[in-house]
User: Fold this.
Amino acid sequence: RFRFFFFYLLCDARLRSKLQGKNIFSSLEFFRDTDIFLGFYKRKQEVLRMGKFVIKKTNTGVKFDLKATNGQVIASSQVYKSDATCKSGIASVQKNAPLAEIEDQTVENYATIKNPKFEMYADKAGEFRFRLKATNGQIIATGEGYKTHANCVKGIESVKKNAPDATIAEE
Assistant:
């Protein structure tokens, strides 16, 4: 991140020095520098829009949370025994989430869908929840409780959007 920030400052300073007292549109150099800056800015925005897997140590092992770009936890894992198995779980979520369809178990006579899938269900408190199952049928991530069906679907869509390119950080 520091390198990106430094490059941003460098580009910004170069553009400002070119703008002082000059006809900026008569210079091809301005357009080249502007392209560099805009390319960097677009990449910075892409990085800021990515989700993030946060690996945390617990009393009994290691787990991860998938956070959306706004910092909200949108999915969590089970507790793993090691960092390596936790990272393997992250890789499984990244691989399976974009492919998974939603099996809505809150409706009568729902159609069973082949794994990988998101199972959406109502918990004992009447909230809507989801769990992501891998191709082998193992639960690899679970969502929080949502008050409405629509918000639960939005949570699933957020996991599908954020998981594939999410960065990994350790706390």
Remarks:
- The helical segments are 2-19, 28-48, 83-96, 149-162.
